[in-house]
Amino acid sequence: MLNSARQGHASVLLTDHYEYTMAAASLADGTADRRCVFEVFARRLPSGRRYGVVAGIGRLLERLHGFCFEQDDVDYLRDAGVVDERTADWLADYRFTGDIDCYAEGDLYFPGSPILTVSGTFAECVLLETLILSILNHDSAIASAAARMVTAARGRPIIEMGSRRTHEESAVAAARAAYLAGFASTSNLAAGRAYGIPTSGTAAHAFTLLHADEPAAFASQVAMLGHETTLLVDTYDISQGIRNAIDAAGPGLRAIRIDSGDLYVMTQQSRDQLNSLGANDTAIVVSGDLDEYSIAALAAAPVDMYGAGTAVVTGSGAPTANLVYKLVEVEGRPVVKRSENKATVGGRKTAVRRHKPTGTVVEEVVASQGTPDPMPGDRALQTRVVEAGEPVADLPSLTDSRSLLREQLIAIPWEGLKLSPGDPTVPVIMR
Amino acid sequence: MLNSARQGHASVLLTDHYEYTMAAASLADGTADRRCVFEVFARRLPSGRRYGVVAGIGRLLERLHGFCFEQDDVDYLRDAGVVDERTADWLADYRFTGDIDCYAEGDLYFPGSPILTVSGTFAECVLLETLILSILNHDSAIASAAARMVTAARGRPIIEMGSRRTHEESAVAAARAAYLAGFASTSNLAAGRAYGIPTSGTAAHAFTLLHADEPAAFASQVAMLGHETTLLVDTYDISQGIRNAIDAAGPGLRAIRIDSGDLYVMTQQSRDQLNSLGANDTAIVVSGDLDEYSIAALAAAPVDMYGAGTAVVTGSGAPTANLVYKLVEVEGRPVVKRSENKATVGGRKTAVRRHKPTGTVVEEVVASQGTPDPMPGDRALQTRVVEAGEPVADLPSLTDSRSLLREQLIAIPWEGLKLSPGDPTVPVIMR
Questions:
Q1: Using CB atoms within 10 A of its CB, is residue B334 exposed (0-12), middle (13-18) or buried (19+)?
Q2: Is any Cβ of chain B less than 8 angstroms from the Cβ of A15?
Q3: Closest partner residue to A338 among B126, B135, B235, by Cβ?
Q4: Would strands A116-121 and A99-102 be described as parallel, antiparallel, or unpaired?
Q5: What ipTM is given for this predicted complex?
Q6: CB of B119 within 8 Å of any CB in chain A?
Q7: What is the value of pTM for the model shown?
Q8: Domains in chain A, ordered, with CATH?
Q9: Which helix (H) or strand (E) holds A325?
């Protein structure tokens, strides 16, 4: 298995040891079948963030569909002493038979938003904790950071090119989350194939260094890809690089890329130089450790496209969304942990977002064990996606999720789009 | 494929688009077969860090072994317009036939250390860039953070329990890297199975909340797992929780876990209370957003074991090692990119670490296109692991890598172990 071209571990083992121990103990003492409700929510947003973006729901539902046990999975758990015989037998027949309700991918969330609700028996629900949180914590962290970069870019496209800075499989999920948040394309081919995301690429410094000189490298690239390519002009000297680029491709060259130096100054100089060479339509792509702040700082520079890498795939300072999965209801009775600094509200929650007549969001209203009193302009935030273990709705496409996010970022109070540290822009009112 | 229990993408597509475009252009212009040397190194360590830990080599070599193209991979690349027919044919027969030399997993690195050297033809080497960097950047970031936590814990064991805070497959690699760095165990079962890492688990608040009351939950857990278990005592009131725990398990209870509150104060009170109940040997496990600093701050508290989650799997502020993969030699000729702020030294490097007679490391000496003049006490840092495309050495086990790291952290100047921000503790001298 380890030496096959495709790797990846069994979904059922992407799980913490204690979930199996708890399931085993509940099977032994008769509590395993109690009807439970677990909820995913954030106690707080990453420091200074004004909103979070829900992402990963589509990936999660695919993974959950494959959450069943092969014989060797059960054997491992029994032989390693994680579960007893009774539990091993139960696992062999395991299939999630409960319900899942959740916010749509691309919607916003705030502290306390009941992003995802899992209901079913204790034992079947408890096993899903780690997988659900891993996917939602990672993907939401990336999408939340990416959305800020998209806002900062003010309509200019951004290419996601951070695969090399994160775990090889995270890179694929990160490309998906960034695209969902409004990025234009990705460099990651697995993401292109798995999710239909446009892929794009330019050239690396290695390609120039491989050749006798820069003109030879550019000539080769243009011969292969035509003038609809992007030439990387900063391997030696940017000004000479631009002359070489236009010599090789003509003034119809699609784009140049600059990956180093003071991008504000270099792009001004490069724009002037390109125009003087008649290459007025040749675009300028910039990259090099860009985050939302450096993108915003280039708003007045003649940049046509950004490439973002490290910052987006690592969540720009917030690599996890810190979502939690908490038991809130047992057999219809609200439950809550009492320790002072992690107070949560018990009971199954129902959430709506409340709007002014203009369409601007006022607040999110969350009711425990009931529904918020309806008001004109309310939007229900949760949809049932799994019922009795089966998918009940076609999931929105990534394109739908992109549109939803774009609409929601227009609907929140404008302060929500500021990059500066601030409070969550929409209050969550617990009723 | 997407709905199978095991997921994971083809290794050959965990790659940036431009690597294929460059390979294609080099095949077209005749430069594809030029002998090249690429090196992986860090330009700098994460801010304030005094050393980095090499990790991921074992995972990388497994992945590289599976770096070959199924027909559907080639079809995707051709149909998506990433490569032309010539390149598609070449990919169908692709097999890496070059050499790889590298630092051992568990060894230290500093800015400029030539951690991994790939030599072969341009086209075969350029395709590996993203996969190599993804794996080494992720795993080294986690191991580097984890090693600082192990130092801070001063011999007390740490459980890795961060799976839920990171991508589901990263979680498995993170557990491996943390174990390599000296963690005692992981909660991640896939890591337990894939790498033989000891797994451990306690119980969650959900298990207590599921039951009518805490005594019922504890009685169930003890009935299932015996007194060799860890009871989570902070769901309601810690002091009452400890009484309930000893009532349920007797004074021979193995451990209690505290996950909230002021851990310094709570562990003192809990120790006194346990002793007064005759449970002098009952261990105290603490968890709750622990990082190297909060672990260090508990040095004088009666803690027996730490659980670390978010901080370790996200690299404690440095989620990527920022390693780069640079072309340094073409047909025996050193090459180097000239742009001022990313200066690198061309030519294939050979590295040794130089020691005082006492065994303390003095410096790392790196020679370009040659070997450092030998000195007594030198230790060569690179080993050939792949020759002509085939593995040539049994890789060290994770246990070997743990030992190596432990030895190296003793050998560096003692300032290197300080948690405070500082410079790299070993200078790298380029010869």
A1: middle
A2: yes
A3: B235
A4: antiparallel
A5: 0.96
A6: no
A7: 0.97
A8: 11-141+318-430 (3.20.140.10), 154-313 (3.20.20.70)
A9: strand A323-330
